[in-house]
Design brief:
Two copies of one chain form a homodimer. Chain A is about 35% helix and about 25% strand. By secondary structure, chain A is an alpha/beta fold. Chain A folds into two domains: about 290 residues, Aminopeptidase (3-Layer(aba) Sandwich); about 110 residues, 2-Layer Sandwich (Alpha-Beta Plaits). The longest helix of chain A has 23 residues. Chain A is elongated and about 85 Å long.
Amino acid sequence: MALTPSRTVEELTELRELTGDEEGAQRVAWTDTWVRAREWLSGKLEPLGVEEETDEAGNQWFTLAGASDRALLIGGHIDSVPNGGWLDGALNVVAGVEVLRRIAEEGEPPLTVRLVNWADEEGARFGRSLFGSSAAAGSMADQEELRARRDADGNPLPDALARQGVDLDNALDARRQLEGAAAYLELHIEQGPVLESLDLPLGVVLGTFGVERHQITFRGQAAHAGSTPMDKRRDALAAAAKLALEIREIAKRTGEGAVCTMGSCVTRPGIVTSVVETCTVLLDQRHLDASKLAGMLAEAQEAGERFASEEDVEVEWEKVWSIEPILFDPELIELADEAVREVSGTSHRLPSGPLHDAAEVARAGIPTVMLFVQSLRGLSHTKLEDTKPEHLEQSVEALDRLASKTLAKLAG
Amino acid sequence: MALTPSRTVEELTELRELTGDEEGAQRVAWTDTWVRAREWLSGKLEPLGVEEETDEAGNQWFTLAGASDRALLIGGHIDSVPNGGWLDGALNVVAGVEVLRRIAEEGEPPLTVRLVNWADEEGARFGRSLFGSSAAAGSMADQEELRARRDADGNPLPDALARQGVDLDNALDARRQLEGAAAYLELHIEQGPVLESLDLPLGVVLGTFGVERHQITFRGQAAHAGSTPMDKRRDALAAAAKLALEIREIAKRTGEGAVCTMGSCVTRPGIVTSVVETCTVLLDQRHLDASKLAGMLAEAQEAGERFASEEDVEVEWEKVWSIEPILFDPELIELADEAVREVSGTSHRLPSGPLHDAAEVARAGIPTVMLFVQSLRGLSHTKLEDTKPEHLEQSVEALDRLASKTLAKLAG
């Protein structure tokens, strides 16, 4: 029986019915619904005779032994945000089942092939995303801090994990899973509008953006809106407004997919009768090239100082978070390009704005690549998230071809 | 005994000690401290043999009978905001005491002279400013609405007024107080930085600004900060930022003291990982000329539409409040100019951004003018509010000269 991509769509629909409600997907990691989804996944793979194992970080591994211990990994995450979409994460694991079926049917593969369902990619319950993949990658550096985390109901993270047989103290022992890994492949919905705007079903992901996130506070002087002439004002909002517009120019000048976002602006005292004394904004900057990202940050900082000076206000920068860009493997990118072209005629290379488990695997030094399939209206993390069935089927086919090409290259 | 301006400074200091604490003035209308201040004022005027009366709106009147029933009114308000300054309002009533002393000493004046201490100018307790003066002016149109008002402790406004002998239902009967009024004079601290920046102690007020106050909502599309290319965004904050900067250009182009203020900016969802979907701002525009004010509003509305269109977002305007400009009397402005020049050498004419009781009196058709005395750092409504003693003394002298000139003109 050959690859049957339509079965993936059927199985995703089945999963949706099993683990969603009228508000969307409810497969939040470490919950009973998540456990039900994992059991459902086991059930799908059982007929293949693959070996199943759950590691110390709660990642679920399905291994089809090959002629060599070296392994091709295909990974995704079945967990979702609350009221989430049916495809974010689950698409890859369910497509991976179909690819494993096809490979298993052809007899012993040249390399071992493993499907991994990463635990808690979303971090929806405890605010810590990429849990399982960062443990396996050895990059989880916040175990101490995680010990104190609680969910909205006050349940400690370690207790919730223990209920699923995961001991936080041992989570990093999951690192052994990546020993022998020769390549890692992940298919995901784009969660953005690029492929739709290009009218393309599929794209090849170059890597995940580096991110610089800062809180910027401008401090001027509150003053009566009626009695303070325009030229006597120290208006914090004016400086922030200039920066809100300038970051777009910075992104445009930098190019190559650069994005800069001011997502929040808070004014104090924030009343109609006073010039704004304090204006606090959040700035998010992303680029695939570390030096360009650093350049964008420097430009924004310079602009912030300049605007503060022009408006006679103070400015203060505080880093909220940052991460380096993570680049995927050039040879795997070539293979992915070939696979996409064979399936849909045209390929397109694009960076990923959101982080993915693939970024953690790539950070661990495993050659990695991702495929994106078009998202309708770019929507994700909502029940409105959707992709056309024909595009989903094409994505399964592309993943399958990429797996074949990667196996052939690694075996060759 | 001639006019003794230094006594006004001494008496203001005395009032501060009697009715303030380490946080500032506490003469909030309808409170016991306010009553104490009113009793203190009565005590100061008692030796002059003036007739005292409290009207139906709680305004305190002191009448020095003259040769004619026509009356020159001098007015201010002894009430303050909580933690307020020592001068806002009180300066005029205490300076008025000194002027009344001087006039009384000279024998029967040609016109009746009345000092009025308006009730609840600040509206600090119930959010309704200019209470007593609007009642006397006959412009109080919100009695029904006021009946339902409560202070922060839940006390109904009618009860608090009744405790001071004021029946809200009869407040408009205070209108009879303005019968026979021939002119109204008011001295006030500037509460702004203009006179200080010109290094002038005194100024003549041309009128109170007209105000247009609007809430403007820009509606774009929330989108992932990482996966949404810059040219695919519908960023509500960007449109608002353009408007925040453009209103300053509008004020500059309009000139003649025009002010435009964006005092509040609220972003939704307001998170670092999303383009702003909804941005709501408050716009306050003021001008002394009604047609220029209307022009500024029209320009802002046109700009808002243009920016919304440029950013592919929706925009909606909602009026919050507006008031027409109120112009003071040209002949009294001339007399005030003379008085100020005689006292300090140079006069300066300026509009008032804040409203004052004088605006209500002017609306009632009584020829009105105000004098401003310099405020240090433009600060008011705070214990930091201050004016140099020599400037306070000059202001008493200017008010006295203005009263003399006005009496002479009215009697002539």
